[in-house]
Design brief:
The protein has 298 residues and is an alpha/beta fold. The protein folds into two domains: 2-153, 3-Layer(aba) Sandwich (Rossmann fold); 157-297, no CATH class. Helices cover 57% and strands 13% of the residues. It contains twelve helices and eight strands. It has helices at 2-6, 12-23, 35-47, 64-76, 92-98, 115-128, 157-184, 192-198, 202-239, 248-254, 262-273, 285-297; strands at residues 28-32, 53-56, 83-87, 105-110, 132-138, 141-147, 246-247, 281-282. The strands form two sheets. A six-stranded mixed sheet has the order 2-3-4-1-5-6, with helices on both faces. A two-stranded parallel ribbon has the order 7-8. Helix 7 (157-184) runs antiparallel to helix 9 and helix 9 (202-239) packs across helix 11. It is globular and about 80 Å long. It starts with a helix and ends with a helix.
Length: 298
């Protein structure tokens, strides 16, 4: 996968921004001079949000009406699997001209590596889409620009934590595998080149990174979904004038997931299910203590 090859080369901030925009359904536009590689990279990105259902423009739907029906279906049914759209380079310009809404779209654009053309292209996209992540993917260069949001104001703590886990857990696994093999190798009896081959786990390293990232994203999604389930019920109580809140610590303990801060979970819920439950979160010590006592009483 191209994405995991880039993990070793890109700045940490670039990777965290990719994860953040994917999770928060911000459009991602990948542009460069090699259509095949761009389309492959779009597939890589799509595999990072496996908890959503993929639809490919000009394969699964074509018309505005079909797209509208897809969006309406996920808006009215909380239980339906949320969608994302992958738009290959061959039909990207058609999509940009045809549609107005691009939430959770992954779009590939083939363009010559010429500064004037690229600047003109980005400016035209800005007129169409207020906020998006632009990824320049050329033969000898790779860069990222978040348009419409000042990334320095974003809380990327959760995304940083994921990257740290990928690095640490992968390294631990590789060390264990090498240790086991080294214990079986008598160096004086085996050629050094063969030893190097036996201890080459580059392919396994990439697979480990992929599995760890997939696991962390899945855990975050499931934890957020459990939080959504609880908060939606509390919201129902509020709507019938039974005012109530829940402490952030209590909520995290209840959903059995504490790897992401509560603000990140609330933000994700808002983008994934369109509900803002921030007013239901009480961070005071008193409410946390009361919630904890109630949970102990069963």
């Amino acid at each position: 996968m191209i994405f995991f090859e880039l993990l070793e080369k890109l700045k940490t901030t670039d990777i965290t921004l990719i994860l953040y925009t994917l999770l928060n359904r911000i459009p991602i536009i990948v542009y460069g001079n090699n259509a095949e590689k761009i389309d492959d990279f779009l597939i890589d990105l799509s595999e990072l949000i496996h908890f959503r259902k993929e639809f490919i423009f000009y394969t699964d739907f074509i018309s505005n009406t079909e797209y509208h029906d897809l969006v309406m279906n996920e808006n009215i049914d909380y239980n339906t699997q949320k969608i994302y759209i992958r738009c290959p380079t061959s039909v990207a310009l058609k999509a940009l001209n045809q549609f107005e809404r691009f939430n959770s779209w992954l779009i590939g654009i083939e363009i010559l590596e010429q500064k004037d053309k690229i600047r003109q292209f980005i400016n035209s996209i800005k007129k169409k889409i207020n906020c998006f992540l632009g990824i320049a993917f050329f033969s000898n260069s790779f860069s990222i620009e978040l348009v419409g949001i000042n990334w320095k104001l974003l809380d990327l703590q959760f995304e940083h934590t994921i990257l740290q886990k990928i690095s640490q857990d992968t390294e631990k696994s590789i060390i264990k595998m090498k240790r086991v093999l080294l214990g079986k190798i008598k160096s004086e009896e085996i050629d050094e080149d063969l030893v190097d081959v036996l201890l080459d786990f580059n392919r396994e390293k990439e697979e480990l990174k992929k599995n760890i990232l997939k696991k962390e994203v899945q855990n975050f999604y499931l934890g957020s979904k459990r939080a959504f389930s609880i908060l939606s019920r509390l919201n129902l109580l509020n709507n019938i004038e039974m005012k109530t809140q829940i402490g952030s610590k209590t909520l995290l303990e209840t959903i059995d997931y504490e790897d992401a801060p509560i603000d990140r979970i609330i933000s994700f819920i808002n983008k994934e299910w369109g509900e803002d439950f921030s007013i239901l979160i009480e961070n005071g010590k008193k409410v946390n203590a009361l919630d904890s006592m109630q949970s102990l009483w069963g």
